[in-house]
Specification:
The chain is of the alpha/beta class. It contains 18 helices and 13 strands.
Length: 484
């Protein structure tokens, strides 16, 4: 009997670090009404909805945990918030991975995500390495195993970024079918591969998602009828060779937030596909274990899934915008300003950390566990292992770790995606930059004056915001009032 064909549906779940870097609270976001902020609204519409997806079949109501069949990555900043404020959804993500791992000989549905959702090709090598290491550490804490794959934010990739994943011990990533050159078995059809990328001693499998069918779900009518979606996916899958896989990838928030009935219709589609004997719903890790990467993949320069100009959307006025009447001349200087902050705090760490810990680079990579695991024993074990016994040094080292984390958060990609830095996403970057600058000033001469000079040159498209410096100062003032 011929081997069946396979279907993999991937959901990329992510929210930026909306919390105040000082208080850990999210300020009211009026656009999210009737909820107090967008995290809470999307929790209701998507994350919880997929944990308990309800659908009717005749007079029977089915309730499914979609995470049991959905290949997914759960962004660390979102996971941290869900752990405290969306416990049922958080448990469902973990349960989905646990059940799928049990069903697939240890190969669960979850894959890791680079920690701060920054654009990896735009980072310095050490920052890329840190983002990968932190993403792996966060995954291990949440899912109790090492990740096999990693989602690259915005699918933004280049050879250096793929090398960083391979060097981190990851086996695969996911990219679009137009993000490079695919050769070998399945290259000329819609097969997911996986294809083998090589560079020196580094090896990485690259799964290819189908742009057309993914777009049908993300932007078309694919989620209007789950049964019809299952038919479309099965039809496309059966056109492949036996044993081949079809991969669909979209924002996880599509299933219930962007598409209101998305959670229920995804459940309906999954149930319909699961009942077939000619196609099998699986995940990337399990498929790779049974079907090693073949053929080859080559990058043709930096690329992403949401900018046809490579990765320019996050650093230049490339033409990508929602409102054609706006200017994105702010993007390049805004990126430079946030990178200025990040580079400064990295320099402060490199200058002061060696006096406190023997291996500062290793300590920094492992430090993220101290922010995601509240167990006091974890901190004690960390400092004992790194031979930091002096209490004063421990306190100062924690401030340095927090400073670097804030500097990394200032480069979260959302700040550049939309038409203006004055939106919620740009404000996230500015708040984290302010926190990083504040912490760095505890160790070295402050740079806020120079940062403000840079920010004053960045003009907004919005009439209520004159420049980035004015917004930065207003956000700091508001945060200070909130702490009184």
């Amino acid at each position: 009997m011929a081997e069946p064909r396979y279907i993999i549906i991937h959901g990329h779940f992510y929210q930026p670090p909306r919390e105040s870097p000082w208080t850990g609270l999210i300020s009211p976001e009026p656009g999210a009404v009737p909820f107090s902020n967008w995290n809470e609204r999307i929790l209701s519409e998507c994350y919880t909805a997929n944990a308990h997806a309800h659908m009717m079949e005749g007079t029977v109501v089915h309730v499914r945990n979609n995470y049991e069949l959905l290949n997914f990555d759960l962004g660390p900043t979102l996971a941290s918030w869900l752990e405290r404020h969306g416990k049922a959804a958080y448990r469902a993500f973990r349960r989905g991975d646990e059940i799928s791992a049990h069903a697939h000989n240890g190969h669960g549905n979850a894959i890791a995500q680079a920690y701060s959702h920054s654009i990896l090709p735009l980072l310095h090598p050490a920052d890329r390495e840190l983002q990968v290491a932190w993403g792996i550490e966060d995954f291990v804490f949440r899912f109790g195993r090492r990740p096999e794959g990693m989602w690259m934010p915005e699918c933004a990739a280049d050879d250096d970024s793929l090398s960083a994943l391979a060097a981190g011990g990851l086996k695969f990533t996911i990219l679009g079918d137009d993000q490079g050159t695919f050769r070998g078995p399945g290259a000329k059809d819609r097969s997911a591969g996986p294809f083998l990328w090589t560079r020196g001693e580094h090896r990485l499998a690259v799964f290819r998602f189908d742009r057309v069918l993914s777009g049908l779900i993300s932007f078309g009518d694919g989620l209007e009828d789950g049964a019809r979606l299952a038919e479309r996916l099965a039809e496309a899958t059966l056109a492949l060779e036996p044993g081949a896989a079809l991969l669909i990838a979209t924002d996880g928030e599509t299933f219930g937030h962007h598409k209101r009935s998305g959670a229920a219709e995804l459940a309906r589609a999954m149930m319909a596909l699961s009942r077939r004997d000619d196609v099998v719903v699986t995940n990337c890790s399990a498929y790779l274990a049974a079907h090693p990467a073949a053929g080859s993949f080559e990058m043709n320069g930096a690329s992403s899934w949401s900018c046809p100009h490579g990765v320019e959307r996050w650093r230049s006025d490339c033409g990508c915008r929602i409102d054609p009447e706006t200017s994105q001349a702010w993007r390049a200087p805004f990126f430079d300003a946030m990178e200025f902050v990040k580079n400064h705090v990295n320099g402060v760490y490199d200058r002061f950390a060696p006096a406190m810990v023997e291996k500062p680079d290793a300590a920094l990579k492992e430090s993220i566990r101290l922010f995601i695991d509240p167990n006091p024993a974890v901190q004690e074990e960390f400092f004992a292992r790194h031979k930091v016994s002096d209490e004063r040094k421990r306190e100062r080292l924690m401030r340095l770790f927090e400073m670097v984390r804030a500097g990394q958060a200032a480069l979260t990609s959302c700040a550049w995606f939309f038409d203006d830095f004055g939106g919620l996403e740009g404000r996230v970057a500015l708040r984290w930059a302010a926190r990083a600058v504040e912490l760095a000033a505890e160790f070295a001469p402050g740079i806020e004056g120079e940062l403000l000079t840079r920010l004053r040159e960045i003009r907004s498209n919005r009439r209520d915001i004159s420049d980035a410096a004015t917004l930065y100062l207003s956000l700091k003032t508001r945060e200070a009032r909130g702490r009184i």
